[in-house]
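Sample entry (146 residues):
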Amino acid sequence: MRALLQRVLEAKVVVDGETTGEIQHGILVFLGIGKEDDLVKGKKLIDKILKYRFFDDEQGKMGWNINQANGGLLLVSQFTLMAQTQKGLRPDFGPAMPPNDAKALYEELVSYAKSQFDNVQTGIFGADMKVHLVNDGPVTFNLEIE
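Predicted structure, serialized as tokens:
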């Protein structure tokens, strides 16, 4: 399971002209789910994201997590994160979990995230999403759980 985290001043997801999720200051998470991933790994990743010290504290160092920074969390499914890109000129999506299984797991992870944190927004799994963001920093991290 992979997550690309971006610290944002604002972010939103638009599907068919409608905003499906929107946050101000917080973390935009692009989430990739692989064939071998499960709810245990997903919960571990969500817990890490929520505890990850991503925001500046009083000393200007990355010492605060999303809760301490009063931020929002925007979760967006993105199977392309699972692509193998080491060989050739075309991505191989073989490592990605099949869509029906990935959707069920993604929905469980969203529910878990909402049970752990108050300000969680989402995109729509499998939709053609337009993601708008203002990256803060820029600060971007790639987290993987195996």
